Structures are given as structure tokens and as C-alpha cells.
Amino acid sequence: MQAFGGVNSDPDSWDAQSTVLAYGSGSCVLVQSLTNYLTIKYIPLHNGVITCVKFTTDGNIVVGTSDGNIMLFDPTTGEKFDEKKFKSSIHRLAVSQNYVFISTALDGTYLLKLQDNKFVETKYETPNIHSVGIAILEVYDSFILAVAHPDGPIHLLVPDTKSEVILQGNAWCQSLKFAINAQDQILFASGCQDRAIRVWKILPYDASQLTNLGISIDTQSILHFQNQDLNVSLQSVLSGHTDWVNGVDLYKGETLCSVSFDGQVLLWTANSEDYDVSLRLGSTAVTDDQSGMIACRLIGPRDIISNSRNGTFSHWVDGKPVRCFSGHFESVSSVAWSNEGFFLSTGLDKVARVWGEIDGAFVELARPLIHGHTIHDCAQIDVDKFGFCSDEKQIRVLQPTSNFAKLVGEPLSKMELPFASMVQPLNLSNKILQTYQSVAIDFAPLNGADFEFDGIPPGTSMWLTRWPEVQQYWKHFRELTRIAVGKAWIASGDDRGGVVVRTRGDETQRRFNSGTPAGDVTVGKEKITGLAAAPDDTAVVASTINGVIRVFDAESGNVLTRVELGIPAYAVGWDESSGYFIVGHENGISVYERDGKLAATENCGAVTALDVLPGFNFVLGFKDGKIRKSSYNSSTKKIEIGEELQCHSERVNMIRVNKDQTKVISGSEDHTILLQPYSN
């Protein structure tokens, strides 16, 4: 199984340890392998958004949520060892060998001890302190806590002795890190809103070293332990970013990494008493794809992982980009297989993505549509044509690029395809860039080389993987919600119940149903929720949110069948003979003969997504996130609900099985896509 999801934008929502990456996507925790890129464990939860994920020193993960839950999991098995509940969201999280330090959104900071895979409460808590960044270091049989306050100062505290040092001159420090270098010296780094990175040394107290260095903080600040005093002194103020520094990390004091909203990832190398920039990575094109960076981890001296606002991880080793993880950072609205074996997904994050199998694992290969509107559905129209419908009144038909075709092979790689695509300012349409030279002509300072990749495009360059728009299908009065493709025609449905059927490759409408007049204020009451083409190409079935099911003649547009359920309907499909249509609704699933006669119904809970397979087999997605196999026996006229597959944590919006019936994909409101093996 593989799970795909964009990492949540909370600064502590992910962590990396050795070859494992763990992160929160919506309400789920994804544990991924950085070696074979398969999913180690998918943990769907029901405690709000995952705000914090941190590894413990023994390899478990501590998870914090927006509902105030702190949980301890085995990241391999998903076993939950312990859980504590706080009054407000877990805002920040730091973990040491024996302690978990948390900051809540409204109720201050708390310290928990880790003991035998359990959380043990301590006496330390500061209910009146709000922090924007925290850190913890165990040292001298005690520990130091670091707390960054919203008004700027950073407080270093030793709770055992109540000793405290206040570091002034900072501004909104979201990232604080401790490290111990090769000389057993304690280093402390901060990344701040003032675009600066500050590095302090915390050394054993020696009165002969206490001199006035003429800097803005008190260099004679002392932290007192039971048997040792430590002097805190500023070592460096590093400048290199042009926007807020959101994340810093230290690797044993040898190297320091910093990331910023400017889109840059800087690697700093220790040089005597200072740090110099040795690598400048990332992208400064942050206005296009929200690629400003949020956080970073050094899992080796020159091995950097960072995440951006668009839910994407980027990974560099020795300055070279390597494969990593990405996904939608809002609800996944639709998924669809191509006949060539890759699949597409769309989401409320206004992005369409394409996923293909490379070296045994699926990975994001392109973002055909990075849009200004929510994208609701997608479908393959032809080998080299794909339709997308969004909060607009037209279907946009996109064609893959020659660069994408190199990744997926034949038949696309044998076709004459455009070189690339880009969007002009104040426009929503992807412009065709037919040749390498076209890029510099229309979009300088970009040039053709920016669109060519040696393998999988890195996360910071995904905004350059759009597909050109080659056609638009209009004729709707309202915004589109669903698309279905027959052998000779394309159907689309809108948010007022309108259904349009057109000849493939021709803008001419073959049948038109306007739905509710555009001036009606009852928006959404007849929204098309499901749309499916009959295998014999003679009809299309549509469901609406208010439970009306209509079967249209694909040639004349006449309504052949109308069923009123009286409850919300969410999804529809056809059996292979085109003699029955299937409806997923608030109470479960129903099978109807083509003329509208009810053949069978099963009250199994709200079915929000379905796919119908040969032999009257179904795969169902439920409002509660469950996924189950099902079947209909036409002899006994009974529906059987069968095996349960890996579930989501929230509503399943779309589910599809590939043409070989070996894999099933599902997209959910929990922001994730699941790819699972399938067999009847």
C-alpha cells in the first residue's frame, strides 16, 4: 500500500530519523521510507488536524493534534502506547531522550516525562505563557528549556534550579534548536522574523572569559545547574535570507540549515567561530506555487529535507535533489486512472496532480493544472487528452508535455507533444509552449532548460510541469462538479443540476439540460454529485445532492428514468451490461434496473463513492472513511458487503480501480490518497 498526502503547514508537523519520514497530512499520520519510497504505516486518526509529529530517541513517534491530543505510536505497527488530552491545540512540540515538551495554543507549556512508553506528568507547567517556538536539551543530569515569546525574547530555563537567561534582540522566533558539537560544546540556534539566524554557545562558566563584547545581549548571562554553571554568549548573526526565517536545524555543530518564506534553503558550514553559506538551494519563485519554505531537518551533514507551503517535501544530498514526497494539502475531490497506468488527482487546494510508478513506487510526476479555482473532477478523454472541471463553467482539456512523456514511456513518448506550458499574468489558461525556444520568447527570464528534468521533477520545480490547454468545452450556466466520458461523447454536470453531453473532440452540444435557472438563489440544492456513462454509450446517469437520480438518453437528451430517493445521493455507476445503475446514498447502496425499478438495497451506512467492476462487483467508499468490497447477486437480488480495505479517517470522495483490476485508489476529505492492491 502507498499513501499520498501533502504535509500540514504547522512547523512541527513532520520529522525525519535516519531513513524514515513521518508527517501529518490532514487528520492522518503518514510514515514513509526514504529508501524505497513506499509507505511504512498509514495511521488515520479522528482528533482534528495533525499539528505535531516528532521521533523519540528510541524510534517511536509523538503526535500532537488540533483537538489537544498527545499520543505515542510505534511508527511501524501503528500501535498506540499512550495518550493525554489538553484543553487546546498542541501548537509546538519538542522531544529529548526522556521528555516531551509541548506548547498549547491557549494554555501554556507543559513537560511530560517518557517512561516505559507512557507519558508521566511533571510539576513543570506555565499556563500563562504563549510561545511561538520551543526546544529542549538534556544535559548535566538536568535539562534546558527554550521558549520563544511572541514579543521577541527567548527564555532559556533550568527548571530544577529555576535559573533563567533572557536572550533579547530577536523577533518572533519560530524555530529553536540545540546541538552538541564535536568539542562537547552546546550550541543553540534561532530563526526569526527579522530574517536573521542567531547562534549562541553555551559553555561551562569561566570568569576569565567574561568580557564585554559590545553586543546587544548580556554576554555574561549564566545558567545555573546543581553542579555546573553555564555561560550563554552570542557566537554569530547570520544573514542570507530576504524573508522570514521559518526553520533552522543543526547537525552536530558541523553544519546549519535554514529555510525561509523566500523559498531558499541555505546550508551553512562551520568556519572557525562563524558559519559560511556552502549551498544555496530551493527556488525564489514563491509567488507562483506557494513554494516558500516552512521547516527543515538535517539528517546528515549535507543531507537536507524541507517542506513548503504547498504540502511538498524537498530533499537534497550534497546539493543534488533526490526523490521525496508530496500530495494535496486540502480535501481530495477526485481520482482517475489513465489507460497507460498512471493516475490523476484533483483537490480543493486548486491543484491537479499526476502520479506514476517509478522503480516500484508511485510518485508525483506533474501538476497539469495549478489553478485559481477549486478543481472537482478529472478524466482521460483520449490517449493524450485529459479533462478537468472546476468552479468554472467550462471543461479545460489539457495535453501532456513531451517532458512528461519521457517519464511514462509509450504510447505518449511516441507522439508529437508540446514542449511545455506556463500561465501568463492575470490569466487562468495554460499557454502552449510548442518548442524549447518558445519559453524564452514568452516567459523570459525562464528558458527551455528550466523545464527539462533528469528524471522526476524536484518539488521546488513542480510549478514548471503544467500541461498546455488545447481545448475548452462550454455550454453550462453554472460551475461544474463532475465529468464522465463515453466512447463517443463527454458529459458534465454542474452545481444546479445541469447536465451537458457533447461529441468528443467537438464543441457542439448533443444534449443540453439547463438545470435550475442561473438566477435562483437556492444554490447547491440540485448539485450534481455523481455522473457515469453507460458502457453501451447510450445513456448517462446523474445523481444530485437532494437525492434525484436521472438517466438521460445520450443522443436525444430525453430523461429516460427519474428516481427520487428523498435522501442525499453521492455517487453513481453502471454494470457492464448497461442494464442496471447503482447509487451510493446517505443510507447505503441501491441497485436499480435501467427503467428505475429497484432491484436491491443495502443499508450499510452512507456510501459517498463507488466503482462498479465486471461481474457485478463494487468497491465502496463511505462517509466515515471506510472502504469495502461489495457485490450484487442478480439471482437472489441481494447485495453483499464484503472485505474491508485500509480506511481513511474522513469521507471518501472518489474511488477507482485500474483497468487490470489489480489496484484501487481513493481520495478523501482527510487530504490523502490511498493506493492499495485489489482483487475480486
From TrEMBL:
Pathway: tRNA modification; 5-methoxycarbonylmethyl-2-thiouridine-tRNA biosynthesis. PROSITE patterns: WD_REPEATS_2. The keyword Cytoplasm applies. SUPFAM superfamilies: WD40 repeat-like. InterPro entries: Elp2 (IPR037289), WD40/YVTN_repeat-like_dom_sf (IPR015943), WD40_repeat_dom_sf (IPR036322), WD40_rpt (IPR001680). Keywords: Cytoplasm, Nucleus, Repeat, tRNA processing, WD repeat. SMART domains: WD40. It is found in: Cytoplasm; Nucleus. Pfam families: WD40. One of its GO terms (biological process) is tRNA wobble uridine modification. WD repeats lie at residues 325-355. It comes from the Eukaryota. GO terms for cellular component: cytoplasm; elongator holoenzyme complex; nucleus. Belongs to the WD repeat ELP2 family. This is Elongator complex protein 2. It comes from Trichomonas vaginalis (strain ATCC PRA-98 / G3). The lineage of its organism: Eukaryota, Metamonada, Parabasalia, Trichomonadida, Trichomonadidae.
